[in-house]
Request: fold
Amino acid sequence: MISNFSFPTRIRFGAGAVRELPEHLKTLGIHKPLIVTDPGLLATDAFKALERISGKQWAVFSGVHPNPIMEDVDAATAAYREGKCDAVIAFGGGSALDVGKVIRLCLKRPDQPLIPFDFDADWSGLAPCVAIPTTAGTGSEVGRSSVIIKDGRKRVIFHPSLLASLVILDPELTRGLPPKLTAATGADALIHCIESFTSPVFHPLCDGIALEGIHLVGDSLARAVRNGSDIEARGKMLVAAAMGAIAFQKDLGAIHSLAHPLSTFCGLHHGTANALCAPFVMEFNAARKPGIYRRVGIAFGLNDPEDATTIKHVRALLGEIGLAPGLRAYGVKESLLDPMADQAFDDSCHQTNPVPVTRDDLRRLYQLAL
Ligand SMILES: [Fe+2]
Reply:
C-alpha cells in the first residue's frame, strides 16, 4: 500500500500575530476580504482587535450558527457577492472557520449543490482564505474539511483545496474565552490527538504530532481553564489544537461517532460530548487491545503506565476542567439512546477505531456514559 503524507499550511504563531494581518493580505493580493464569524463573537475583545486592524473597512458576515447549517453557507456566500469581496477571513471557533472555508466552493461553482459533494469536480483556484481561530479545539484552521448540517445530519465536505491559504494562531485572541468553552474545546483537541494516535491507519508523521499534542494539552489545558490570561498555556493549547487536527488526517474513532449524534439530537457542545464519552470508549478499547494507551500515558508524563492508569489520568483531567461524566446532567434522555446509536453507527469515524464496534456496542457505551 502507498501512503500519502502532506503538511502544507503556513502558520504564523505568537501573541500579537494577528496584527501582521494587513501585510499578509497585501502579499496575498487581497483588497476586500469578507470576515466570516458568529454573532457571539461581535462583542468580544478578539473581534474588536480585528476591527481595529481592519479600520472597519472589511465586509462582515456574522450569522454562523454554533452547529452551522446550509443556510449559513448560502447567506455567507451571498454576503461575499454583495460585498464584491476577493477573499475570506474565517474568524472564530470551528463553526465560523468551517463556513468561511466552504463558501469558496459555492463561489467557484454556484450552480452545483454542495451536498452531495462532487469531489472530482475542478476545485482549483478557490478564493484565498485566512483562518484565525479564537478557540483552541477543532483545529479547523488547518483542516481540509467542513462540517455542515443538512436535513438534521452533520455532513462532512472534504477536499484538499479547502485548506486555508494562511493560518494565524494568536493566543491573545483566545484570552477572553470563558473557562467552560476553554475546557470543552480543549477536550476536543485532546481527543483528536488520542483517537488519531490510536487509529490503525499507517501514518507515523501524524502519530508523532498526536503524541506531542497530548503532551502540550497535559501541560496547559487545566492551566488555561484556571487562568484564561495565562498566555503561555493559551498558546500551547492553540498549537495542540492545530496539531490534533493535522493528526486526524489519520481519522478518528468511536468517541467521535458517539459525540456527533449528541450534538445533533441534544445540542451538546462537540467537545463536551466527546469528553463525556471518552473514558468509556477508552476502557472498551483497552479491554480488547491491551497496551493501546501506553504511549498516550507516556506522552502525559506517566511512568510506563497501564491502560487503566492512563484512562484514570484522562478522567482526572476532564474532571479537573469541569467535564465530569454523566450525559443525564446535560439533558440526554434514555429514550434517545437507540436512535442515537443508529446514527453513531452510520457515522464513519468508528471505522478507524482501534477495535471494531457494533451498533449495540455503541448503544452500551451511551448507556455507560449516561
Ligand atoms: Fe472533534
The radius of gyration is 20 Å. Residues 138, 188, 192, 256, 270, 274 surround fe (ii) ion (CB under 6 Å). The beta strands are 11-13, 33-36, 59-61, 87-92, 129-133, 145-150, 153-158, 166-169. The chain has a mean pLDDT of 95.
